[in-house]
Amino acid sequence: MEKHVDVVVIGAGSGGLGAALYTSKQGLKTLVLERHNLPGGAVTSFVRGRFEFEAALHEACEVGPEGNRGSYGAYLEAMGVDIDWRQEHNTFHMVVPSEGIDANMPCGRQNFIDEMERQVPGCRESVTNFFKVAEKGIAGMHYMTEHAPENYFKGTPGVMVQKLKHDAQMAKLKATLSTKYPDFLRMASVTINEGMDMLEIPKKAQHIMSSYWVYLGAPPKEMDFFTNAMMLLAYIDKGAAVPSMKSHEISLACEKAVREHGGEIWYGTEVRKLIVKNGRVAGVKTDHWDIYAKEVISNVNPHIVLGNMMNQKALPEKVLKYYNSKQLALNLYTAYIGLDVSAEELGVAAYSSLLNTTSDGDEMYEAAHQLYSNGYTIVNCLNNIIPDSSPDGTCTLFLTGMTYGDVWKDVKPEEYRRVKQKIAAQMIDQAECAMGIDIRSHIEEIEIACAPTFVRYMGTPNGTPYGYQVKTNDGIPMRCMNEGEYHIIPGLHFCGATGILTDGFNCACMSGAKTAQYVVEKIKAESKKRSANG
Q1: H or E stretch at 242
Q2: How far is 54 from 383, CA to CA, in rounded Å?
Q3: What was the pLDDT predicted at 481?
Q4: 466: closest CA among 301, 219, 335?
Q5: Fewer CB atoms inside 10 A, N or C side of the chain?
Q6: At a CB cut-off of 8 Å and minimum separation 6, what does 151 contact?
Q7: Helix, strand, coil fractions of the chain, as percent rounded to 5
Q8: Global pTM exceeds 0.90
Q9: CA 311 distance to own-chain centroid
């Protein structure tokens, strides 16, 4: 059977839904194909016993309070997505018992600076300078995105004039960035460590301020200074937020809005192959349908698309070279625990606690290249933001750790249960010791998800939810400057965690929005071409 639409979106994860919201609202006939029976990908929840567990969300960044939304919150509102957000007013709680660190870092720049001074006496001036430099860098980033050259599309009317205009705008943009926003370019080219050393921030303060490296998966020695600064300021200025009905509320609200805009979503429909005609992606094949589209947007990891859905021999060398240069990001393991005591009775007052055996992010990164004893655990207690997120007199904990590389390759199927139970036991040991609480005596339900779980559910290489490894030459600034790389296969465009804004619920969604904007422009340009040709 055949079907013809304007846009096919592969996958109803954050990126795919973010893209479909825009294309459908712009009036394009949009079809989202999702192999599962629910939307959201990792943006979902599940039930064990009397507990509903949040599958993946720690918290959403760039939401902001009502009336002062961040980019993510503003986009969803503009798309007609209605979500009951609950705000978190602290950035993170970092605990390193071996170094005597127990830092509960607040939102608000001055509050954050004051707490940094309390944690590391004498750092106030350098931390204040960090904010000044970061502010200048972010101003440069905003200028770059607001003055990005207009796209041009080969074969469309007036393309030569459009290309000349694009090139002139690009030259002006580069000149302005180098003269008026040098801090942006400088920050994007140095690592977190190098940038903080330049600002003469004490090492202990550096380690605390780079704690969020784990949220993008790149250590301070590899992540660019700007990406870390931008992420940290987003949390400090806007806080974090979670939906009152857990993250599946986001997925369902986005699905509802897509349908209201006239879009379709087919569940239980897996894309098997891409249809390629004359060197251009022209649609997709499912088990029962050949669906033709003017453009295809993929929320599926490019490694999977290029390896399983296309003929690699027919791909241009520059495409293979580009994606072969990418390094897969980390994978996770999480213990979802339902306890028969309240958070207050358990003694957990923070929503998100980062537990480390050392405050040095680079050391933690190196330790995470093994299956056991990584020494890093994130502990989330949703009840401290949403008290009724579990039954009265109970609470839930989410213990998350990370690994790099294919550390599961030597684990035999018959050993899997024992291995993941040992990992969960290590995380529980660390949480009990670092936080001075008793978890084991109160466990009512526990579910453990590891890389094989995420492989089965998300279908990503090694089960990574993070896409590609962030580095100084492949962070947000560099990806934005090289946005065209995500459109180098005619008719096919990528979004989601592998996209230009890297990983995270907000970043994946906004990546989808940005990709969709490009696709809408392209379809409109092609329409003008057809009209001109009669």
Answers
A1: strand 240-243
A2: 11
A3: 75
A4: 301
A5: C
A6: 166, 518, 521, 522
A7: 45, 20, 35
A8: yes
A9: 29
Ramachandran angles phi, psi of 3, nearest 5°? -145, 145
CB 505, CB 497: distance < 8 Å: no
User: CB count, 10 Å around CB of 391?
Assistant: 15
Q: Which of the following CATH numbers is that of domain 2-84+244-327+467-532: 3.40.50.2300, 3.90.950.10, 3.50.50.60, 3.80.10.10?
A: 3.50.50.60
Distance CA 478, CA 325 (A): 14
Q: With a cut of 70, which residues of the chain have pLDDT below it?
A: 534
**E strand residue ranges, 269-428:** 273-277, 280-285, 290-298, 331-339, 352-356, 376-380, 395-403
Instruction: Quote the pLDDT of residue 534.
Output: 60
Contact between 93 and 354 (Cβ < 8 Å): yes
Residue 191 DSSP symbol:
B
Under 8 Å between Cβ of 509 and 247: no
At 200 the three-state DSSP class reads: coil
What was the pLDDT predicted at 484?
76
Let me know how long the chain is. 534
Return all residues near 69 (Cβ < 8 A) that are at least 6 apart. 63, 77
Where helices occur in 159-263 by DSSP H, the ranges are 159-180, 182-189, 192-198, 203-209, 213-216, 225-238, 248-260
Rounded to whole angstroms, the Cα distance separating 26 from 499 reads 22
Instruction: State residue 436's pLDDT score.
Output: 97
Q: Distance of alpha carbon 524 from its chain centroid, rounded?
A: 29
d(CA 417, CA 519): 45
Rounded-to-integer distance, Cα 529 and Cα 534, Å: 9
Token digits of residue 318: 């520059």
Query: What is the tens place of the pLDDT at every residue in 460-510?
Result: 998 998 899 998 888 888 888 777 777 889 999 999 999 888 888 899 999
Residue 152, pLDDT score: 84
Q: What angle do CA 92, 18, 403 make, to 5 degrees?
A: 45
178: helix, coil or strand? helix
Radius of gyration for the chain, computed over Cα atoms and rounded to the nearest angstrom: 23
Give residue for tokens 């830092």: 103
The kind and range of the H/E element at 133 are: helix 124-146
Which tokens sit at 151?
């796209």
Do 239 and 72 meet the contact criterion of CB atoms below 8 Å apart?
Answer: no
Q: Which amino acid is at 174?
A: K
The order of strands in the sheet holding 331-339 is 101-106, 90-96, 352-356, 376-380, 395-403, 331-339, 443-449
* Cβ atoms of 377 and 481 closer than 8 Å: no
Q: C-alpha angle 331/337/338, rounded to 5°?
A: 155
Q: Look at the block and give the residue holding tokens 């957990």.
A: 348
What are the residue ranges spanned by the domains of the chain? 2-84+244-327+467-532, 112-236, 331-404+409-449
Structural contact between residues 333 and 400, judged by C-beta atoms closer than 8 angstroms: yes
